[in-house]
Amino acid sequence: MRIGIYIQLFGLLLLLVSCGSKKQERIETPWGAIADTIPQDDDFDLDDIQRNGELIALTLTGPETYYDYRGRHLGAQYLLCQRFADKLGVSLRMEVCRDTMEMLQRLADGDADLICYPMTKQGSGWVVGDDKDDLAQELQAWYRPSMLDEVKKQEAYLLSSRSVRRRVFAPMLNRSGGIISHYDAYFQRYAQTIRWDWRLLAAQCYQESCFDPQAKSWAGACGLMQIMPSTADHLGLARADIYHPEKNIAAAVRYLSELEQSFADVREHSERTKFVLAAYNGGGFHIRDAMALARKHGRNPYHWRDVEPFVLGLQRAEYYNDPVVRNGYMRGSETVDYVRRIHERWNGYRGVKTVHAVSAGPMGVPQKAKRERKKKYQISDN
Questions:
Q1: What are phi and psi of 45, to 5 degrees?
Q2: What does residue 235 show for φ and ψ, rounded to 5 degrees?
Q3: How far apart are CA 65 and CA 261, in angstroms?
Q4: Vertex 24, ends 18 and 25: CA angle to 5°?
């Protein structure tokens, strides 16, 4: 493999990677070996990509490149590549590699159309195979230096509370009467099926939607328990009913039940609820990665306080690139905060004081931002 010409694109650098001459692929059949009817050294350029309807890009996981966020994909490089695919009128398929050498090799082998990753120190350096001159020219004509800042601002907005359409209701309707919300009867009915305190389910609901049955996020999550339409399909919740309070809660509890079963190896019920909440927010596959890291570093993978630091650790390259991690980067601080806030509010609903402990980092070093003394306080309504 040789590296071809460098093309400067106003800060976007394209490296053209030569795939070299390739022979026709040999295929074994019952009657002997034959050559594939399509020569492997045929160019597969822009027209072919558009005719095929798919742009295939290689990347690495990371906060600036590509990651999963509550079932949706984010990362500035991904968002920029998605814009380019939209310009071409094709879908985008992102393939995650382990390192840059794997990306370059797979591109040279013709497994993808481009590398969507900053391969140079100058701006955003993408790589295109040198048999794709038309694709490179199209990218050069399309790209503007301001685009990277635009997608970063777009991502920041999507990750902010401003991207969620909801009304904020009081976290407790009538404290003296013990009434949390208008939906308490549903929480009480369905929480029994998973052996949860109904007030824990109510606390989760408030964290998801502030008790607004019409809440909707930028990602498409809907209703009281912020259920994604695809998840609703899986759970048997008709999309026409996704904003119906009782049906939304009932479907969410079915999903929580599935998560309970998937974390059945966490034997202690009080511990398992924390893992289930974390998986509801950040994805079970990421929580399993954090558990694998905890196990590798000699911690108890079935105790949330031992796993929590590694959920936070999945925001750092040294951890999300660890060989035991299968699903890459995650916004771990958001998931840790999600679990913490729900438990604090649940304690408040029960009249139990919350104890704040020092959160240790993955190697047992307390996080600098949390080195204050432990303190006890009664949760407020805010």
A1: -105, -160
A2: -85, -5
A3: 33
A4: 105
